[in-house]
Amino acid sequence: MTDFPESHRDLLDAQFATLATLGRDGIPQLTEVWFLHENGELKLSLNTSRMKTKNLRRRPECSLFVLDVENPYRYIDVRGRARLEPDDDYQFARRVGAKYGGADLRDHDAPSDSRVIVTIEPTNVFAVNMGG
Amino acid sequence: MTDFPESHRDLLDAQFATLATLGRDGIPQLTEVWFLHENGELKLSLNTSRMKTKNLRRRPECSLFVLDVENPYRYIDVRGRARLEPDDDYQFARRVGAKYGGADLRDHDAPSDSRVIVTIEPTNVFAVNMGG
């Protein structure tokens, strides 16, 4: 159950997703994030100074949740582990920015910050449609 | 930081929230839920047969996230632990149903099912407004 079902494929190109990471106390921490569906994978560009990135370095267990904002009874939750890779030259960040009207992700970063590519490696894909 | 900030109070009366629980494998599991803001607390009515309820019984660490669907750059994440209490007579379930146009939560349950009142006991309230 790690494939994205056809019925929810549109959500993979939505504008926003909710990322769940685990804090030091083991409590889930949710934040709203930009993301990119690329080569069949769900990926994020995260600033290494952010708490969610530190959480993922400590504990890769995570979940990326995409809600159909037109119908909140329909959503997909991609559960698994995060793989982190450096994006020192912001190549990947630029591809994310392209999805968001050419946004420059550096605008959100301090000069000394760096970014990582976060790829969700699913162990379970949970797709729901309860009508509505 | 366990108070609900005035700037995000409206979200406590939103229609939907995202509940994060932890699976047996320690991976966060997110589902969209109805909820009720009552006496200054955030509460859910959950069917005991559901995975999320089993998760909370095993590990109470959880998070309830409410997104401003009009502006996804604004949200509140209530992080903490869940307190579970029986709701065998569906008294609390009825109060939740009243928020949702008088919905009868029994319609979602099998005759042998039971419900619990889930109250989020916050250890941290994370309120974000990045404009948008």
List keywords for this structure.
2 helices, globular, 7-stranded antiparallel beta sheet, about 130 residues, homodimer, mainly beta
Structure explained in plain terms:
2 copies of one chain form a homodimer. By secondary structure, chain A is mostly beta strands. The first copy, chain A, is 13% helix and 43% strand. Chain A contains 2 helices and 7 strands, in the order E-E-E-E-H-E-E-H-E. Chain A has helices at 51-58, 91-99, and strands spanning 17-22, 28-33, 36-38, 41-47, 61-67, 74-86, 115-129. Chain A has a 7-stranded antiparallel β-sheet with strand order 2-1-5-6-7-4-3, sandwiched between helices. In chain A, a hairpin with a 6-residue loop joins strand 5 and strand 6. Chain A is globular, with a radius of gyration of 15 Å. Chain A starts with 16 loop residues before the first strand and ends with a strand. The mean pLDDT of chain A is 96. Chain A binds chain B through residues 15-16, 18, 20-23, 25-32, 59, 61-63, 65, 67, 69, 72-73, 75, 77, 79-81, 123-124, 126, 128, and chain B through 15-16, 18, 20-23, 25-32, 59, 61-63, 65, 67, 69, 72-73, 75, 77, 79-81, 123-124, 126, 128.
